[in-house]
Write a structure and sequence with these properties.
The chain is about 10% helix and about 35% strand. It is mainly beta. The chain has two domains: about 50 residues, no CATH class; about 80 residues, OB fold (Dihydrolipoamide Acetyltransferase, E2P), CATH 2.40.50.840. Bound molecules: zinc ion.
Length: about 140
Amino acid sequence: MTDLLPSPDMSPDAGPYWDAAKENRFLLQNCDACGEWRFVPSHLCTHCGSDKTSWKEPSGRGVIYSLTTVHRGPTAEFRAYTPYIIVFVDLVEGPRIMTNLIGEGAEHAAIGDAVEVCFEARQGNTKVPQFCLAPKGDAA
Ligand SMILES: [Zn+2]
């Protein structure tokens, strides 16, 4: 692939998420009231309803809950990127995140494989947190 994929739509609640990604940092909201981590970013805690939250850096590690390979992209940019892999990752901290699996060996990934966050450059000087297979021997 020679061209970068488009930048995603960015909701106002997710500003710190995208700002951190530009610096290769992975931040999630952590509820100040109940301590639960959450994804996707939201104004209110999905566990207790509190509006008190802090952006914190989780481990960036997890395991693949489910995955699929996309052979027919929705736009010309994504068609040029096929085949690519969409995964649901269960983060060590609890949230399940839908993302892409990229990097070496991604095409051979399986449910239960350990993964870790990595970052993919996109158009508009942005980066997107994605996931890569963790080095063998690393437990999530
Ligand atoms: Zn909460």
